[in-house]
Design a protein that fits this description.
Helices cover 22% and strands 23% of the residues. By secondary structure, the protein is of the alpha+beta class.
């Protein structure tokens, strides 16, 4: 399967398609959530000195193990920091599933407001990158550049320097609006979020031709419990449910049938 992924970058980070240093790779709805919740909450400079959004086309061919285990096309989502896997279950995941691409849907515990049902992030383990993914344990994904967009352009800011000199604020969470910039106003409004999504979509269409690559279903059902709203702090894995939601959390070495904590 092939789809687009997005990433927030600073001007200092010119390694265009380098994805091995962390897992902050998002769907289009996901990158808007990340910017709104983590980046533009501070202006002049923005958090992490973010200045642009890069887009890449990723081709994924995961191993068969996720499908055999829960009929999924994605493996467990893992976090990466400083070029290393930082999740508690990195070794176990790679041993069991190979260097699989993971997926994580947005949940309220992550903060902010979701942009829709494809507000999701992806993890791309560096050891799985290869020229032509074939589903083997160390060849699961390939990345190609597919354009970039300045955040100033998306927000309608002609000069960020002048905006800052005038005391501009992109987004004040306490007021749910900006000063000198209204692009991020009303974070919880579905109408406003849809407007922001449409603008981002149109801006990328200006630089690259329309390509029909719908967002995939984020079906990594056995991601760590700590990533899920009702499972944080509980031991073990999240147990899959037929409807794609987390049905229960269970201990690593306990029997699911007798020890599951059902989430009503």
């Amino acid at each position: 399967m092939s789809f687009f992924v997005y990433r927030a970058r600073s001007d200092a980070d010119r390694n265009y398609d380098g994805m091995a240093d962390d897992a902050s790779v998002y769907s289009m709805q996901g990158i808007l959530w990340y910017l709104h919740s983590q980046v533009v909450t501070k202006s002049c400079p923005r958090n992490f000195n973010i200045t642009r959004i890069t887009r890449s086309k990723v081709s994924v061919f995961n191993t068969e193990e996720p499908f055999f285990e829960w009929k999924g096309q994605f493996g467990p989502y893992l976090t990466f920091e400083g070029g290393k896997c930082a999740s508690p279950e990195c070794s176990e995941t790679f041993e069991k599933y190979g260097q699989v691409v993971g997926c994580l849907p947005w949940s309220p515990y992550q903060g902010g407001r979701g942009y829709g049902n494809t507000t999701q992030s992806y993890s791309l383990p560096s050891a799985g990158r290869c020229a032509v993914p074939d589903g083997s344990r160390n060849c699961t994904w390939h990345l190609e550049p597919a354009g970039e967009l300045r955040l100033d352009e998306l927000e309608g800011i002609a000069s960020y320097e002048r905006f800052c000199s005038a005391g501009g604020i992109e987004y004040d969470q306490s007021k749910d609006e900006g000063s000198g910039c209204n692009f991020w106003d009303k974070q919880g409004s579905e109408v406003a979020n849809a407007r922001r999504f449409a603008k981002l979509q149109q801006r990328f269409l200006k630089t690259t031709p329309r390509v029909d690559m719908p967002e995939p279903l984020c079906d990594s059902q056995n991601a760590e419990c700590r990533y899920h709203e009702h499972c944080r702090g509980l031991p073990g894995k999240c147990c899959p449910a037929a409807d794609g939601l987390m049905l229960a959390c269970c201990g690593k070495n306990e029997d699911l049938a007798t020890n599951a904590i059902v989430l009503a």
